[in-house]
Give the backbone structure.
Amino acid sequence: MLKLKNSTLKKHLKNLTREELEAEILNLTKKHPIVQEHFFAMLFPDNGGILAKYKKIIENEFSFNKREILRYPIMKKAIRDFSNVSNNNEQIAEIMVFTVECGVDFTLSFGDIDQKFYHTIASIYEQALKYIVDNQIEDKFVDRCNRLMLSSQDIGWGFGFDMMDLYNDYLGHMDEVEDLE
């Protein structure tokens, strides 16, 4: 794949007039929906429309009709794409936590899946927990993450243990603060 250097692109952009630059950006948003989503998310960070679109993609992967065909790359791509277009930390954490909720609910509804499934969901849970802690938004997600950990305790393949360990590693200190109050 060819890679354009930033310096080359900057040089090109400096030679454009304001009108040409605006036209170029408008053309990019017209040709590439993800660029339009990026600008929409930037201009309207609290609007949940784009988040809802990506949550629907994830939800569709857990639909009953596709019970036998869970496409992990599509779920991960939805999270990655949303994270690339949004700058709203809470919404980015939301899509990750939502994916884990879908995975846990799916297992509780349909029974034991396979090790790859649990590894994928636990990996997304860890990604969510790390993101939540790194962005200091624990108070917004601690209850949901705790519920996920608790509701996964009877699930096989060591999944419940993994979820408990991850929760304790990232948010366990929040429970200790509650106990002191």
Q: What stands out?
A: The CA atoms of residues 72 and 116 lie 9 Å apart. The chain has a mean pLDDT of 91. The chain has two domains: 14-43, 46-180.
